[in-house]
Specification:
It is a single chain. The chain contains four helices and 34 strands. With 583 residues, it is mainly beta. The protein has a six-stranded mixed sheet, with no helix packed on it. Strands 12, 14, 17, 19, 20 and 21 form a six-stranded mixed sheet that branches. A hairpin with a 2-residue loop joins strand 15 and strand 16. The N terminus is likely disordered. Belongs to the multicopper oxidase family. Keywords: Apoplast, Copper, Glycoprotein, Lignin degradation, Metal-binding, Oxidoreductase, Repeat, Secreted. It catalyses: 4 hydroquinone + O2 = 4 benzosemiquinone + 2 H2O.
Length: 583
C-alpha cells in the first residue's frame, strides 16, 4: 500500500471550498470555509483473514483525512446510517466559544441517532500541525478515526527544513470480534476486556501477524537523500507505543500540534490521543535494504494487554536504470529496529523530559507564571460492588472501576452537560462540587489502602473565565501503579513538572519549568508518579478531561470542567446551533 503527498484535501470526503473575507485584520485576509461530508456506514473490512461488518466513515478504514489551514472554518456534516449512536470529536481543536462542535457525547451534545445528521461548525484559531478526529462514544473510535492536518497559513513556513513529502501514520488496532460487544461484556462481568488481535499502521497489520500478507502491509516508499515529515497519531484504544525505524534517526519537531525544540532520537514514545511530528532524513544513496517501521506497547499496569509488534516497511525507490539489475527490491534484506523493553519506564521518562516548547518570538510559550486556583487530582483504578445474585470477575469478586479523587464519573443520559449549563438546567443532571483534592489523603504511591471502593457521581469543577489553573495529577498504587494519558478538551496546557513518588508541595514546585515547558493536550501521568500542568481557562463552555486509555474511561476515569462566560461579548459561549441533536 503506497502513500501520497499531503497538501490537497483527499477525495475520501466530499469537499467544497468557499472564500470569506475576514474583517478582523487591518487589511482583508482570505479565509477558507471547507465542507466535508461524513457518512457513518457499515462496511465489510477484512484483516487477519477475518471479515467483519465495521462501522466506518465513508466506507474507509481508517476514515478520511481532513486537511485545512490555520484560520480556516470547517463545516463537517455527519450523517448516521448505522444503529449505533454517534458523535465525532475533533481531538485537540481548541473550539474557542464553539463547544457545541466538540463532539463529546453527553458532554457537549446528545449523540447523533440513527437516520439523523449534525453539522460540526468550527474555526481553527491559532493552531497548526497534526491533530485527529475520532468517535467519542463507547468504543466506536476503534474504527471511526482519521487524521486532521492543519497546514500553516499561506506563505508561512515551518520552523524546520521544508520536507520533500508529508505522510500521516496512524497507529490503530484490529479486533476480530466486535469491540462494542467486548466492552459491553466487560462492563457486565466487571473484569478486564479482551485485547485486540493486532495493532495496525494506517489500517494494516503488516507482515508479523498470522494471516497477514504484503497487501495488508503499509509500505512507505522514499527517495534517497530527501527529508520526509511523518505525522504520527496514536489512535490505539488502550496502549502507549514505542516506535522506531530500523537504522534511521528521527527528529522530533512537534507534539499535539505545537512546535518543539527539535531533537534526534532512534525511538519515540506516543500515548493514546497524542500526535508527534518527526523529520525522517533518508540515506544519501540506496542502501540495498528495506527497513521495518515498528511499534509495540509500553506497559506499566497489571492488566491484560496486546503485547504484539506491528510493522510497516520503509522501502527506497530504485532508479529506473537499475530496476533490471540485481538490486530487485524483492530480494533485499529487511532490518528490524531494537525497541525498548515493554516496561521501560526509564526510557519513557528520558524521552518526555526532552520535550520543550520552541518559546520563540513567533511561537512563544505563554506559561501562566502564577495561578489563581490549584487542584490536586489522584488518578487511579478501584472497584465497585458486584450486583446481587451476580458473579463478577474483578478483584475479589468486585467490578473494576476508575476514578479521579475517588469519584468515578457517571455520564448523564437525558441531557448533555453543555446544554444543562447553558440553559441553567443543571438540577438533576450534575452538581458543581467536584473535590479539589482527595477527601481522605493517603500515601498515594506506597502500600495501597485495603478499601479500594470508589464513590460515583456527575460532579463538575466550575471556573470563572480567565482563571489561571495549576493542576497536579497523581498516580496511585491502588490495584497497581500505572501510566495514565490524560486528555483535556478545549485547551492546551503546559507540562511544568513531573516526578516519581508522591508530589511534595514544598519541594517540587521549585523545580518547575516556567520558561519553555512542552505545550500539549494529552499528557502521561507517570506510573507511580505525578505530573503538574498549568493552563488559562479562557474558553467558556463545558470541557471533558479523561484518561485516553479507553477501558479506564469506560470505568469512570473522567471529569468535566465548567468555564463560565466572561464579561465581554467575545468571552461568551455562542448559542447552540439549530440542528444540535436531542437525546
Amino acid at each position: 500500500m503506497g502513500v501520497y503527498p499531503l497538501p490537497s484535501p483527499p477525495s475520501l470526503a466530499v469537499v467544497f471550498i468557499s472564500f470569506v473575507t475576514l474583517s478582523v485584520h487591518p487589511e482583508p485576509a482570505l479565509a477558507i470555509t471547507r465542507h466535508y461530508k461524513f457518512d457513518v456506514m457499515l462496511q465489510d473490512v477484512t484483516r487477519l483473514c477475518k471479515t467483519r461488518s465495521t462501522v466506518t466513515v465513508n466506507g474507509k478504514f481508517p476514515g478520511p483525512r481532513i486537511v485545512a489551514r490555520e484560520g480556516d472554518r470547517l463545516l463537517i456534516e455527519v450523517v448516521n446510517h448505522v444503529q449505533n449512536n454517534i458523535s465525532i470529536h475533533w481531538h485537540g481543536i481548541r473550539q474557542l466559544r464553539s463547544g457545541w462542535a466538540d463532539g463529546t457525547a453527553y458532554i457537549t451534545q446528545c449523540p447523533i441517532q440513527t437516520g439523523q445528521s449534525y453539522v460540526y461548525n468550527y474555526t481553527i484559531v491559532g493552531q497548526r500541525g497534526t491533530l485527529w478526529w475520532h468517535a467519542h462514544i463507547s468504543w466506536l473510535r476503534s474504527t471511526l478515526y482519521g487524521s486532521l492536518i492543519i497546514l500553516p497559513k499561506l506563505g508561512t513556513p515551518y520552523p524546520f527544513p521544508k520536507p520533500h513529502r508529508e505522510v500521516p501514520i496512524i497507529f490503530g488496532e484490529w479486533f476480530n470480534a466486535d469491540p462494542e460487544a467486548i466492552i459491553n461484556q466487560a462492563m457486565q462481568t466487571g473484569g478486564g476486556p479482551n485485547v485486540s488481535d493486532a495493532y495496525t499502521i494506517n489500517g494494516f497489520p503488516g507482515p508479523l501477524y498470522n494471516c497477514s500478507s504484503k497487501k495488508n502491509t503499509f509500505v512507505l516508499k522514499v527517495k534517497a537523500g530527501e527529508t520526509y515529515l511523518l505525522r504520527l497519531i496514536n489512535a490505539v484504544l488502550n496502549e502507549e507505543l514505542f516506535f522506531s525505524i530500523a537504522n534511521h534517526t528521527l527528529t522530533v519537531v512537534e507534539v499535539d500540534a505545537v512546535y518543539v525544540k527539535p531533537f534526534d532520537t532512534e525511538t519515540l514514545l506516543i500515548a493514546p490521543g497524542q500526535t508527534t511530528n518527526v523529520l525522517l532524513k533518508t540515506k544519501p544513496r540506496h542502501p540495498n535494504a528495506k527497513f521495518f517501521m515498528s511499534a509495540r506497547p509500553y506497559v506499566t499496569g497489571q492488566g491484560t494487554f496486546d503485547y504484539s509488534t506491528v510493522a510497516g516497511i520503509l522501502e527506497y525507490e530504485v532508479a529506473r536504470k537499475t530496476i533490471q539489475s540485481s538490486h530487485s527490491t524483492k530480494k533485499l534484506p529487511i532490518y528490524k529496529p531494537n525497541l525498548p523493553p515493554i516496561n521501560d519506564t526509564s526510557f519513557a521518562t528520558n524521552f518526555t523530559s526532552k520535550l520543550r516548547s520552541l518559546a520563540s518570538a513567533e511561537f512563544p510559550a505563554n506559561v501562566p507564571q502564577k495561578f489563581d486556583r490549584q487542584f490536586f487530582f489522584t488518578v487511579s483504578l478501584g472497584t465497585i460492588p458486584c450486583s446481587k445474585n451476580h458473579t463478577c470477575q474483578g478483584p475479589n469478586g468486585t467490578k473494576f472501576a476508575a476514578s479521579v479523587n475517588n469519584v468515578s464519573f457517571v455520564m448523564p443520559t437525558n441531557k448533555d452537560l453543555l446544554e444543562a449549563h447553558y440553559f441553567g438546567q443543571s438540577t438533576g443532571v450534575y452538581t458543581p462540587d467536584f473535590p479539589i483534592s482527595p477527601l481522605i489523603p493517603f500515601n498515594y504511591t506506597g502500600t495501597p489502602p485495603n478499601n479500594t471502593m470508589v464513590s460515583n457521581g456527575t460532579k463538575l469543577v466550575v471556573l470563572p473565565f480567565n482563571t489561571s489553573v495549576e493542576l497536579i495529577m497523581q498516580d496511585t498504587s491502588i490495584l497497581g501503579a500505572e501510566s495514565h494519558p490524560l486528555h483535556l478538551h478545549g485547551f492546551n496546557f503546559f507540562v511544568v513538572g513531573q516526578g516519581f513518588g508522591n508530589f511534595d508541595p514544598k519541594k517540587d514546585p521549585g523545580n518547575f519549568n516556567l520558561v519553555d515547558p512542552v505545550e500539549r493536550n494529552t499528557v502521561g501521568v507517570p506510573s507511580g508518579g505525578w505530573v503538574a500542568v498549568r493552563f488559562l481557562a479562557d474558553n467558556p463552555g463545558v470541557w471533558f478531561m479523561h484518561c485516553h486509555v479507553e477501558v479506564h474511561m469506560s470505568w469512570g476515569l473522567k471529569v468535566a470542567w465548567v468555564v463560565l462566560d466572561g464579561k465581554l461579548s467575545n468571552q461568551k459561549l455562542l448559542p447552540p446551533p439549530a440542528d444540535l441533536p436531542e437525546c
